[in-house]
């Protein structure tokens, strides 16, 4: 049996379509069932994690027309932007691009990802412009005053990723861990949402083409093309969406050993046109390879494991407040990548579920099953505790369920291309 996009869209409009998340499909298969194209019309997927290929295109007011001819430099809450390409001569406004990975010149712990979240929260940000004559213009502005705020993902949602450990004795600073990674083999960090990942369920991009709609941080966006460094073996996506429609819960800054990074969340839909497409969504974490690399260079693969590392883990830590020793210098507050733990309080909404709190606190104040990796090493076996998860399975699940809900409600139809 084969179906068409038009067949499925008609069922969606009539409220008769069967929509499952990729995890729901996998769980059916693990329970001994084998759904067919007759049983399922659409499978939704989701992922959330650090995505360095993040940039925003802004047009924003700075001063009254005639105040300056052209911006030469600009910062937003200390985060450098790149004015242009349009000069906007004497208009008092600036076109610019801001990288999600840019670091503030005034606060080394603040960067583009944190800036984007602050903007989406409606906060006023400080703008400093240096014009081409060297004059400084200062102002403050919020997102609702921006003429344009468009997010571009140049390299989003890799078909899962890599785990990292440090086999050496000296600590290593890297974007692939929340803090400098101790060694040898003191822990492991990893990225990728396994069986829920969009391209893991559609590795040949059969359901994604130029113009295909998807969700980026809960905003309806478009697939532009495959992203930078994409390959048939390790595909990723170049995508875009209007930032003004985004939910700040799904993107933000993430502090690493090498400075602030940025995380995003993506959801896609897979129309089930035949059994072959559906069977690709049967994949489970234990069947998905997870390379373990030396954090000193991702080209150096030490071993292989699988995404079974997610199985049986906790989405979020449990904070045993009565055990908190209220240390003068709190390791957890110092290390928390999203600043979710401050003043001995845990903000469970801001929390990313990385596990750094449970790994760092010497008093067992945080309980969290973070997962373990078993890897072959020099003729033996090493069991490594996960020190940092740089993907958030909770937000990924929320995104997949949100897209499922929109399709069920008939507010999100599928694209033909």
UniProtKB/TrEMBL annotation:
Q: Which PROSITE patterns match?
A: 4FE4S_FER_1 (PS00198), 4FE4S_FER_2 (PS51379)
Q: Which domain of life is it from?
A: Archaea
Q: Offer an example of a GO molecular function term for this protein.
A: oxidoreductase activity
Q: Which SUPFAM superfamilies match?
A: 4Fe-4S ferredoxins
Any Pfam family matching the protein: HcyBio
Limits of the 4Fe-4S ferredoxin-type domain: 342-371
Name of the molecule in the record = Methanogenesis marker 16 metalloprotein
């Amino acid at each position: 049996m084969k179906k068409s996009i038009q067949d499925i869209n008609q069922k969606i409009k009539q409220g008769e379509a069967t929509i499952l998340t990729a995890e729901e499909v996998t769980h059916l298969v693990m329970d001994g069932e084998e759904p067919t194209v007759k049983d399922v019309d659409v499978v939704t997927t989701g992922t959330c994690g650090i995505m360095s290929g993040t940039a925003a295109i802004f047009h924003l007011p700075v001063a009254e027309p005639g105040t300056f001819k052209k911006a030469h430099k600009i910062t937003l809450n200390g985060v450098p932007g790149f004015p242009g390409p349009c000069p906007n001569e004497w208009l008092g406004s600036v076109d610019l691009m801001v990288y999600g990975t840019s670091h503030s010149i005034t606060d080394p712990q603040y960067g583009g990802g944190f800036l984007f979240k602050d903007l989406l929260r409606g906060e006023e940000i400080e703008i400093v412009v240096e014009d081409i004559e060297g004059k400084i213009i200062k102002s403050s502005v919020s997102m609702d005053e921006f003429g344009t705020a468009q997010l571009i993902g140049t390299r989003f949602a890799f078909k899962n990723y890599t785990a990292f450990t440090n086999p050496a004795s000296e600590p290593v600073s890297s974007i692939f861990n929340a803090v400098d990674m101790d060694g040898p083999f003191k822990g492991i960090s990893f990225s990728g949402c396994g069986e829920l990942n969009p391209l893991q369920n559609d590795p040949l991009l059969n359901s994604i083409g130029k113009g295909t709609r998807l969700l980026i941080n809960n905003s309806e966006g478009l697939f532009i093309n495959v992203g930078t460094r994409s390959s048939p073996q390790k595909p990723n996506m170049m995508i875009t969406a209007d930032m003004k429609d985004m939910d700040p819960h799904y993107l933000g800054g993430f502090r690493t050993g090498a400075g602030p990074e940025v995380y995003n969340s993506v959801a896609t839909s897979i129309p089930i046109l035949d059994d072959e497409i559906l069977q690709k969504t049967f994949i489970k974490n234990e069947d998905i390879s997870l390379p373990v690399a030396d954090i000193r260079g991702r080209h150096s693969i030490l071993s292989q494991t699988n995404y079974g590392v997610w199985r049986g883990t906790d989405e979020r830590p449990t904070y045993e407040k009565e055990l908190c020793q209220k240390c003068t210098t709190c390791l957890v507050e110092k290390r928390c990548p999203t600043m979710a733990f401050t003043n001995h309080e845990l903000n469970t909404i801001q929390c990313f579920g990385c596990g750094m709190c449970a790994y760092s606190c010497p008093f067992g104040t945080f309980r969290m099953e973070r997962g373990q990796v078993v890897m072959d090493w020099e003729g033996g076996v090493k069991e490594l505790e996960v020190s940092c998860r740089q993907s958030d399975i909770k937000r990924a699940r929320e995104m997949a369920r949100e897209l499922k809900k929109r399709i069920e409600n008939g507010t999100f139809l599928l694209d033909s291309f």
